[in-house]
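Students often ask what a 'structure token' actually looks like in practice. Rather than answer in the abstract, let us consider Sigma-54-dependent Fis family transcriptional regulator, a protein of 383 residues. Its sequence is given first.
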Amino acid sequence: MAKLIIVDDEWKIRAALRDILEYEGYEVDEAKDGEEGLEMILRNNYDVALCDVRMPKLTGMEVLLKVTEASKATQLIMISAHGTVETAVEATKQGAYDFIMKPPDLNRLLITVRNAIERAKLLQETKTLKKRIYKLNEIVGESEPIKKVKDTINRVAATEARVLVTGANGSGKEMVAKQIHEKGSRANQPLIEVNCAAIPSELIESELFGHEKGAFTGAAIRRVGKFEQADGGTLFLDEIGDMSLSAQAKVLRALQENKITRVGGDKEIKVNVRVIAATNKDLRQEIVNGNFREDLFHRLSVIMIHVPPLAERRVDIPLLADKFLHDIATEYGAPPKELSNDAIAYLQSLPWTGNVRELRNVIERLVIMCGEEISLEDVKAYA
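Now compare that with the structural description of the same chain:
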């Protein structure tokens, strides 16, 4: 059942609105002024608040601003007998869902309330989903090397600095990029990922910058590239050490000028992206070998984060295994399983050349193949 609150200093208005809304099946509370209304909204999880504009102690606009600052999912519908177009515009600019004149038209009121409830539920679901995704992307571990990685992420996430993430395959470079994005000011904007190693060199420029219709054989329609898709958000260039030199030159120009040109086009398109790059290669050696541009390296490596291999953080294996057991059980809709102490000790002794990715694959195999408690014999059989 949707939960609403009416904030108005006129008891007759509160009573009339309450009768209407309770008849529609909503749970309704009342507040006699702005101060009481704000306190109740911040303390409870209301879907919608019907809030008068002119009230003692706190005006409706002051209530609106404080609720918005608190990032509550509650949708405020402002109501007033003295409203103007300017007031309505200002209210919606400040985050109000809608503005309704007194006395309200009954049909419009009910439709607005219904739509506001849907929006409140959608916002709450989005918030819950983001928390779940954030937890999936959580970097797990308490070893000194991983603490250093987490500390660096926390320091750079709120900035616009470009970041170069280095580390072996499967060590968690993508997780670092996602954490930087999710903790930064662009978190509500897109995170676009490009695996430079998986795209043929002749197609990488089209993938990154897009192309115009007829730019080359097979270009039947215009295509928007990853830089444009990431506008306002973050572009993650994974395995950038595998990018062709010609594409590197265009990426460098895009970073220098915040502009791109589609393949086959001549129009410059402004883009605003934060670039995070990752590689499993030694880019300094690649520069010496003539495979990577030194000027691009310096553009990308304002901040460098090295993700250690799992063999250098064996103390984290029990924590990682526990997280994977829980995540996989949730994914399969099954109760989580447990590893025996000697099974965990054996996992810590393995070489883990495939790093964290290999460990997760092993845990998934054990979850599928073993009973409630995973023994040392199980691990030896399936690891």
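One point worth highlighting: DSSP finds 16 helices and 14 strands in the chain. Ask yourself how you might have guessed this from the sequence alone, and why that guess would often be unreliable.
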